[in-house]
Amino acid sequence: MKTLKDVISLKFKTSESEGVIFHGEGQQGDYITLELKKAKLVLNLNLGSNQLGSIFGHTSVTTGSLLDDHHWHSIIIERHGRNINLTLDRHMQHFRTNGEFDYLDLDYEITFGGMPFSGKPSSNSRKNFKGCMESINYNGNNITDLAKRKKLEPTNVGNLSFSCVEPHTVPVFFNATSYLEVPGRPSQDLFSVSFLFRTWNPNGLLLFSNFADDLGNVEMDINEGKVSLHINVTQVKKNRIDISS
User: Fold this and answer.
1) Cα 153 from Cα 181, distance rounded (Å)
2) Position 121 pLDDT exceeds 70
3) Domain boundaries, the chain
4) Which residues form the Laminin G domain (predicted)?
5) 97: which of 16, 82, 194, 228 fits an S-S bond (Cβ 3.0–4.6 Å)?
């Protein structure tokens, strides 16, 4: 396809911070890739570059953050020549692509949820999307509906299900005064804790526990946006360990 205008829209939700949402490329060096990187949305677009290097068409735009929150996010890409409107959750960003070309030449297949292995170093380092998509619309074509009715030819569908599996994690919300207290294990000489957390606050106590037999305590907190771990041991000379990250 050689297009002057494109409209691509879809909704997604995921708990992964990396993954290719959409990809298309052509023999002339044109490409369009929409992907998650570090839980941000990145659009890479090239309407063409020349071999002399005087016309460099690569354009990259990043928007959003913390998009791996397993909530639905909507994307709309509207292109007219070099003018692009990128809308994420109703927040629109307007930009112009680099280079001098207006048409997007996509000679190969367009893929959603990943990109085919092309042998290029960039392709095998990119993760496929893991999560849910709905309402995929590409230039007026309802891709989700066509895929479900097996009306896409040619098509290559790998391990795809038309349902959205919910994660089995149960989140807990803490306000400024709440806390969760669980029983300890006095006979264990191993202390092991793991959890995921998300907060907008730069300071706060994440974890506190006294060791049995008055051997000390362990404390984990957020201090000015950094996680700090403090271990106090009463029976050794160097009785305090502080780790910050």
Assistant:
1) 57
2) no
3) 2-149, 169-244
4) 1-164
5) 82
Q: What is the pLDDT of residues 147-170, one digit of tens each?
A: 888 887 766 667 778 888 777 777
CA-to-CA distance for 229 and 219, rounded, in angstroms? 6
Place of tokens 């995929």: 136
Query: What number does CATH give the domain 2-149?
Result: 2.60.120.200
In angstroms, the CA 212 to CA 185 distance is 9
| Contact present, 25 and 126 (Cβ < 8 Å) | no
What is the model's pLDDT at position 86? Answer: 96
What is the C-alpha separation between 132 and 162, in angstroms, rounded? 9
Q: Are 82 and 97 in contact (CB under 8 A)?
A: yes
Q: What is the pLDDT of residues 185-207, one digit of tens each?
A: 878 778 888 888 888 899 999 99
